[in-house]
Amino acid sequence: MEPPPARGRDSAAPKLDTAGEEAELELGLGLSVGGGGGGERAGAKRGRILTARDFPSSVGTKRAADEAVSQEPGGGSPTSGSQVVGWPPIRAYRMNSLVNLAKAPRAEDDISPNEKGKSKDGSEDKTRTSGKSDVDGREQKHIGFVKVNMDGIPIGRKVDLNAHACYETLAQALEDMFFRPAKTVDLTGVEENRQVKKSSKLLNGCSEFVLTYEDKEGDWMLIGDVPWGMFLTAVKRLRIMRTSEVNGIAPRFQQTSERQMRKPI
Amino acid sequence: MNYFPDEVMEHVFDFVTSNLDRNAISLVCKSWYRIERFSRRRVFIGNCYAISPERLIARFPGVKSLTLKGKPHFADFNLVPHDWGGFVYPWIEALARSRVNLEELRLKRMLVTDDGLELISRSFVNFKSLVLVSCEGFTTDGLAAIAANCRFLRELDLQENEVDDHRGQWLNCFPESCTSLVSLNFACLKGDINSAALERLVARSPNLKSLRLSRAVPLDTLQKILVRAPQLVDLGVGSFSHDPDSETYNKLLTTIEKCKSMRSLSGFLEVAAYCLPAIHPICSSLTSLNLSYAPGIPGSELTKLIRRCRKLQRLWILDCIGDKGLGVVASSCRELQELRVFPSDPYGVGNAAVTEEGLVAISRGCPKLNSLLYFCQQMTNAALKIVAQNCPNFIRFRLCTLDPVKPDSSTNQPLDEGFGAIVQSCKGLRRLSLSGLLTDQVFNYIGMFAEQLEMLSIAFAGNSDKGMLYVLNGCKKIRKLEIRDSPFGNIALLRDVGKYETMRSLWMSSCDVTLGGCKTLAKKMPRLNVEIINEIDEMEACNDDGQKVEKMYLYRTLVGPRKDAPNYVWTL
Question: Helix (H, G, I), strand (E, B), or coil: what is residue B172?
Fold first, then answer.
């Protein structure tokens, strides 16, 4: 096998999504529903993860125009972090700490020593909270890797939420993880799907999937309702759920379906 | 035949501390085997599945210190599912049941539970030292049990663990009678810390030499602690930001000057660069400095600091320092032995990244360099050759180009020649990690020259089975081989199956070995566990021997297939 052609790879800059702007939520997954619904892209070997926008009852989804997540191999959407699993080889713990690097105010920033001092001076509290260095004063979240489970797949994965700036790239990454698990770095930009047989099983008549997350209160929510930044502060873990598991689907799940979904994953 | 009574032999053996030497002793004759095994106090088990706790206890009933490692190294990079294995509870349980007088437990990449920690704290009266590195599965409740019940605790060292912080008052659980602490490291904890409890603990620990604080410990608490413990040798700073005009900060300045024993600094998990001058007084005696977790210190402040650290032997830094900053390191730190440069922006097109220039500068200024971990934007063969020439003493050489297959940035050639120069020059090289564009030729060099090599990490490299064969044939001392995304298949895997019994383990993921190849290997070598990790549905793959295996991990073992493997891990 010839060595891969030399290629100066430019890492794509993450597509920044300003807070408040709804990210596009056409989350495609590498599966198709056998024959029936969901085949919006005719002939495409892909189905979709359903999200809040698919449900007419969804409130407050000010969705922009339908802009499909690029289905081109090689990924049109710039998944800043998930091109190669486990590269660069940095311990997950250290990767998570890089979150602090990104968020911590730099010394060049215009934060006067007095301002910073204020939060630390004063009465001696018995306990101190960490992370008050954020400019807006919010406690910093150590969001980094969160668990992702998919119904029917026994092993979970972890995805680095900080490698993403919008739902689009996150969905792309999850697709890569769960439907193209053997993806290798192929520098001509064509994904090498090594597990053709496995994905074709998925192609034949599996149900559609829904991307959900568990928030801090323990509720399972549909991805896409809230702005990305807010999602980051609320999310505890993700689950790619079969739509058949979801009861009375709506952007906000009902009590009964919550109980169902609290099965151990 | 012994000319001396057993007690004399035992006394002699007491002077032999290295486990390798002790292993050799035990092979001399049955009598020496017997004497040695009863007097062995420290046992190191590099793969917890190579042996069982029962057999450990049977052979070394007097063991006092146990080191265990669990998951394969690539688990650090999310290549291994979290519940793959490495459960420590059965070990603790067995040791407790057999009333082993355990005093020290050191774990790496293992799954630790609160129950396990509680069991330790209740079972081993003389327990003194707990060191957990890259472990997970436990919470601060488990730490509370250790604190509360281990009356003679000397060391609690938590390095880079994922700990669920229940925000309980685990620090409060150290009883007032606990005055034996020598080393306390809780830098990886995320939750709040009771500052008053911490101060009191430090105040009653006169032997405290090493203290590493978490981010939640603010500067004023640090100042109070240092007043109580000016004898500290190793300090990990939590939060280091404060109004420099305040009384607290000024107190800190005077306090730090009194810390004459300080040799090692780390942490600064939250830091304001303008506070850094406070540590200038102690820089001249520092031998170890780790700023790799310190966010956002500009290069200029870093160099101001490092210029003063003329005795530095170990430096861990972020690539924000830049090539120029590394030049300052090279001219200031002539005693440098270990350098690690981590990327501050692993995915981006880092402006702050370092290149081959920084590394060349270091090699020119630091001839004693023997251990390197270097994440860089680019590298050249020419640079590596210069480095090889200037620094022939490398024991560990790990180079990581952020683009895993990047060629020589000036010639566009593979980096074979550069790495070849390294292995040829550094005759004592024990650990090597490769990256960049690499062909089979680099493995030819490694097989030819890397005679002492024990651990080799390969990713996205090579052209054919020949590459892997060069390594397996040539590296007589190889113990751990881990390979990902490289075109090595069954031919290489099966050429010399006996080789794997001389090694600890082999990891291959996203390579070309097939299920059939792995099955063949497993059949020929009953004393290897050949484990396959299956991502999705097992049933189909079971029948297709021609299918490539996603992840294979094999290791020698004396106790057969493990019984705690999750259902997606097959032992063939």
Answer: helix
